[in-house]
Automatic annotation (TrEMBL):
GO terms for cellular component: cytosol; nucleus. It comes from the Eukaryota. This is ubiquitinyl hydrolase 1. It holds the Pfam family UCH. Residues 25-139 form the MATH domain. InterPro entries: MATH/TRAF_dom, Papain-like_cys_pep_sf, Peptidase_C19, Peptidase_C19_UCH, TRAF-like, USP, USP_C, USP_CS. One of its GO terms (biological process) is regulation of protein stability. Its EC number is 3.4.19.12. The keyword Plastid does not apply. Belongs to the peptidase C19 family. PANTHER family: UBIQUITIN CARBOXYL-TERMINAL HYDROLASE, UBIQUITIN CARBOXYL-TERMINAL HYDROLASE 7. Transmembrane segments: none annotated.
Amino acid sequence: MSYQALHQYLQKRSESALIEQDPYEIHETWETCEISKMSPDGAPSPAWKASDKYWRIICYPKGYKSTTHLSILLYSPKLQEEHKVKFTIQTVGGIKTRKESSEYTFSKTVPNRGFFEFIPLKDLDLYTVNGKLKFDVHIIFSPPKSNRVNYRKLTGYIGLENQGCTCYMNSMLQCLFHTGAFRKIVFGLPTTGNEDSKNIPLALQRLFTLMQKSPIAPSTKALTDAFGWSSMEVFMQHDVQEFLRVLIDNIETKMKKTDNPDAIARVFRGKTNSYVKCLDIDYSSDRVEDFYDISLVVQNKKNLLESLDDFITDDYLVGKNQYQLEDKSFHDAFKGCRFKELPPVLHIHLQRFAYDMMSGMMKKVRERFEFPFELDMEPYLSENSNDANECTKYELFSVLVHQGEQYGGHYFAYCRPTTERKWVMFNDDQVSIVPESQAMDDNFGGYNKHHSAYFLAYIRKTDIDSIMHDVTEDEIPNHLLDYFDEWKSKHSGMPPSINLRLVTDKTYTDAIKRYGKVPSNPDTNENIKSPGDIRFTDFLSNIKRTCNVDNSKDVTLWTIDKSGYPKQFIKCESQVKQIFPTSSRMFVSDVLIDNSSPEQFVPLIVTYYDPTNAETPLQYIKFAPLKQTETLLPLKEEIRKILNIPETENILTFYSENSLSATFVSINNITLSLSEQSIKSGMIIFQKENIPNVHINEVTKTNEDEIPQLRVIDLLPDQMIKTVDKFFEFNNSAISYSFAELDNSVKNNNSKDNANKDSSKDAHKVAFRIALDENSPIKLLQRSVRSALNVSESDSILLFKKNDKDQPSERPIDFSLSSSIKQIITVPFLFYKVIPNVKQSELENRKSFRICVVDENLDVIEYPMFLMSSSFQVDDVFGKIKQSKIVPYDKPLRMLQLQGSRIVKMMEQEDQLSGLIDFSFRAEVIPEDQLDAEPEKLVRVTLTNNKIMPRNGCVGTPFYIKIEEGEAFKDTKERLVKMAKVSLSSASFAYSNECTVLKNFKQLNDDDVLSDILKGRNTMLYVFVPGASHQAVNSHAFNWNSGVRIYN
């Protein structure tokens, strides 16, 4: 059998898989109209629904295949499969009753069955009441027993069909699907359901919808078709890691144009710090790179920790492999890599395949390789890691397993779908609950086993709740729920139920108020499902009830075009499937038209634009179906009366045929007919010609939970838009920027209530939002915020971007630049700080300078940010510190320039700082014993956890210590450990007179005298603290969460 034939067979098998049906029972009564007035062609009862089946009876007063008896038939809309039921039909209420029962298998070819000779026509009056018949109908369905295992009922989860060799893909998809944060991102991708079959995001959304709701294992064919794979390619086994990278890259690319472009990165992206350091000269280079997964060596490693140790072990470049600098000189060096930033979800690829030098081929590494349930990544962080104060402990959530050899085999997955330690095995379409030992211990591998772990997924403990947050049906877009209904109907042997989302005047009112326009898919909660082959008139009462319309009132039904506008009148006698082949939206209106000639009417939405109404500048007025021969003049005058617009005010008229293009036509002569002006369905907008200059100048709230939604066009008079066409242009291009108060944000981040919450969602309380065009100058952003906060001319504001840690950036935005907003800001979230008594023009000539201030014991007093003049030096900063009463005037200060956890130098009071504002500095109260010390008697002390190359493992807080003349080191180290705040029993010590050379250091003994052996300006003391980390040893890195304050 060819690849193509086998693929078609497997696909046909998958598509023919039917959902096991639930039993049901229908018991209904139906009273006919008067028999004498009944059509001889038959009168149908209302449709009765049970499960996903619809039934009705049809009464033939003159007989069906009989001329002597009234006939009664049970009928179901076209079935796709055989469906066997028991049914009983009985008359009630007459002098005589008639009851018949039967059992029959209905099908697509025979959709009705009943009793041709039910009541003799000559005796009909004996069964009627007032000339009408009343039937009692009882239908019972008991599904046949199935040999198919219902894994959804058994385990709560479902698997995926294997197309041939797609087990590797199925395993990774299960891992990603059961990562709640990723599933939520997928459902949030900007799709409408109308994209073509090559759209990967839509195909993945639909697959995830089936994985969440389907009772049977769905096929992945639509996804592989979107990938562009041929039937042969689904029989080619690919690599799990390669598939993951391609899929993540594609989704991330699609997210770039949304308002959440970094969603994937915030879940999976980490950063490594790759470095090269020369051994004989003071040269080093660093490079920070993103990663979404890491690949670790398995061969000759006992466990995951050994592999991670190997990952960060430095490689020495000596001999023929010396490192070459840009000046062409060669030097002995070492290079390495450590983690600068860890992701919430850590994906680890295990290199189970390696090149065999003997055979010249790839082979599978079958050695036993253990991995822990809880993993601590702290030992693998770089010195300047962004995660120095973050949790570094992870829990295992997924294990992907490879069974077989290097050139073939089978993949399956073990996942924890919830935060509990409950493991589920997903082996293509088979699913089972398993003990943790099977998910972990059984997959460590070994020479006696054919299966072993190939890919691991860990989640940071502090992120587990947010990453594994359950995704509810409410978070699934409506078009995907419609898709599932159609898919379920197809796999239930029934024609698809068509889901009609009912749009009303209220829908348009709410949508225009929320979006400032008619969206292409108006949000509506009024839904009704219908089989395709019944008429609208059959369930018109249900439509009215759903839309809260009195059943005695008439309504008109209209299709809705892609723009969201009413398009075509629907005759109630039409079958649903004739108008709507698939699920769609339908407009229900109480505005009636002449049904005999509906094609003469043009359906129009009528709105009014008032830019002085900041809350709802565009208002929905009414639905107006006008004849093609009519003009807009009567409608214009009606609007004038409704809105009390004086006769002296001129009213402008605009027409929009397509809300998606935001193209507007100005109607200058409204005395012409609609046909003469080529006006078809769409929207008519009226507005006053003369608009006064008004604007909102501050943030106002109606309640505490409401977040004000503002627009630059309302905040600034010179930005006001006075015509609706320009308003729509703005609406289509504007981006909503969120603003949080800096002090509020810091307070929220420090609160215990937010300690375990997702910072991107909970930590920053949004004060207001402003919609601006991202192509506007950055200065406009500043002006808008000033207006929103009603900042006086004597005060100013600072704005800070959100960094990749979801915290305020260390430096404020420079508004002196001539850049656009989008060139400066990539994430539409900012923090603001009002600076009193400093004009904005004065502030723009200042430079922000951040510094850590500590006392004599190296305890942090404060992290101030000072607004300095364009040129300033050290003693200017000291003046600010004392003026701000951070440190008393009588306390002497000194300033240190830092690099990570190492002191670069002590600054002189006259040193200029204006060109060094991007470096780290610490101001400290000088300890009393060092006040009069000579400079050569003060030595730098660095804490380190690396005994081979101390400079490569600096941690904690560096400091100066005074060297006492003739003091034995056994006495000196007592002072050292006290200042370092470490245990004497666990610490050891060394020194270097040339600390720029990495390996040039010597161990210190108790009888050494530092005043005799320490020489030169590059002297350094090292305190070795085994296992010390950035968390274990206090570090004074700049941190907003520690309460940074800004001083003028």
